Amino acid sequence: MQSSTASPTHPSGRTLGLGLALVSAFAFGGSGTAAKPLIEAGLSPLHVVWLRVTGAAVALLPIAYRHRDAVLRRPGLLLGFGLLAVAGVQACYFAAISRIPVGVALLIEYLGPPLLIGYVKFVQRKPITRGAAIGAGVAVAGLACVVEVWNGLSFDALGVLFALGAACCQVGYFVLADAGRRGERPVHPMAVSAYGLLIGAVLLTVLTRPWQADWRLLGGSVVMNGHTLPALIPAAWMVLVATVLAYLTGVISVGYLSPPIAGVVANLEAVVATVLAWVLLGEHLGLPQVAGGLLVLAGAFAAQISKPAAVETGAAGRSGGATEVVAGATAPGSAASGAAPSGTAPSGSTASRAVGTAQEGRERVAAAERGVSGRSSRTSRSD
C-alpha cells in the first residue's frame, strides 16, 4: 500500500504534509518536558523511555494487526526503524536530558542534518553543495556556543555525548521513513510507526529490565517547576501525544514532503521544547545558548534545503542545451551519460539513451524549479 493517496507534488498534498509535520514537531517538542519530572521523581531515563515506547506500542497494536503483512514485506526496514528511530533516539535523548537541560539536548540533537552531510561526503563520497557545507559549519559553530566550549564544556560531557548519539539516530528516522514508501514493496507509514514502536519496545525491554523499576511512582505525584501534579498526567501526555501522535504524523508527513523539507519543519521541535522547558520547568538559557541555538537551527535549515550538487549543475547549464543538462543530471562516467567509448561512434541505442537521459535531466531541473526534488531525497538521505 502506498504511503499517501495524494501526489507529494500536488499543492493539497504539500499542504497536508506541512500540517502533519507541524503537528509532529509540536508533539515531539513536549516529550522532554513531560519526562523530566518522572526522571526527577526516581525513574531512570531508560525506564521512562521504556514506559513511553511500550505504552505507545500497546496503543498502536490495532494498526500493527491491520498492516501485519508489512512484516513480510520489509522486515529489515521495520527492524532498523525500531532500533534507530525509536529505541536509539529515545534512549540517547532521555539519557541526555537527565544530565543537561532539555533545550540544550534538543539543540545538539539537531546536528543530525550536518552529520548526514558529512556521511554523504566522506563515507559515500558523493558531492554536496557549498550551501550545505556552510550550513553544517554554522550548525557546528552554534553547538560550540550552546555548550560554551570556551569555559571547558560547562555542561556535563556525557550528557552532550548522549545528545550527539540522538542526533545520529535522528538521521535514521528520516532516512527510513522515506525508504518505506519506495521500492517494489512499499510499506504504509502507519505500519512503519506501529512496528517500529513494537520492535523498539522489545529491544528496550531486554536492555532496561523494566521489572526492576519502582512503578509505584506513577501512582504518586511529581513536581514540575514547584507545582505538584499526579504523575500519570505527564506519563499519559508523553505516551499518547509526544509518542503516538508525534510518530504517526511525522512519518506520514515524509510521504507528502521530501525528507529534507520534513526535517526543516521538525527543527521547530527544538524551539517548542526550549520554550516549554522554560515555562514549565524553569530551565533558563543564557544569551550564548540562545544565540548558539539559533545558529544550530539556521545551519540545519540551510543544510537541509540546499539542492543537491547534481541538480544545481544541471540548472546552471540548461541554457547551453540538452548536453549540459545531462552532464548535470547524470553521474560522471555512467552508462546513461550518452558518451560513447573512446574511438567509437555513437550507436543508435546510445543516442536513444542520451535523448532519454536529457529528458530526465530536464524533468529534474523543472522539479527543482518547483521546489520539489525527488532526487534530493534520494541523494541526501541515501535510501
Layout of secondary structure:
Layout: H1 11-29, H2 31-41, H3 45-59, H4 61-66, H5 70-73, H6 75-97, H7 102-109, H8 112-123, H9 130-146, H10 157-179, H11 189-208, E1 221-224, E2 227-230, H12 232-256, H13 259-266, H14 268-281, H15 287-305, H16 309-316, H17 322-329, H18 348-369, H19 374-381
Antiparallel strand pairs: 1-2
Helix pairs in contact: 1-12, 1-14, 2-12, 3-6, 3-11, 3-12, 6-10, 6-11, 7-10, 7-14, 8-9, 8-10, 8-15, 9-15, 10-12, 10-13, 11-12, 12-13, 13-15, 16-17, 16-18, 17-18
Write a structural description.
By secondary structure, this protein is mostly helical. Helix content is 70%, strand content 2%. It contains 19 helices and 2 strands. A two-stranded antiparallel ribbon has the order 1-2. Helix 9 packs antiparallel against helix 15, helix 10 runs antiparallel to helix 13 and helix 12 runs antiparallel to helix 13. It is globular and about 50 Å long.
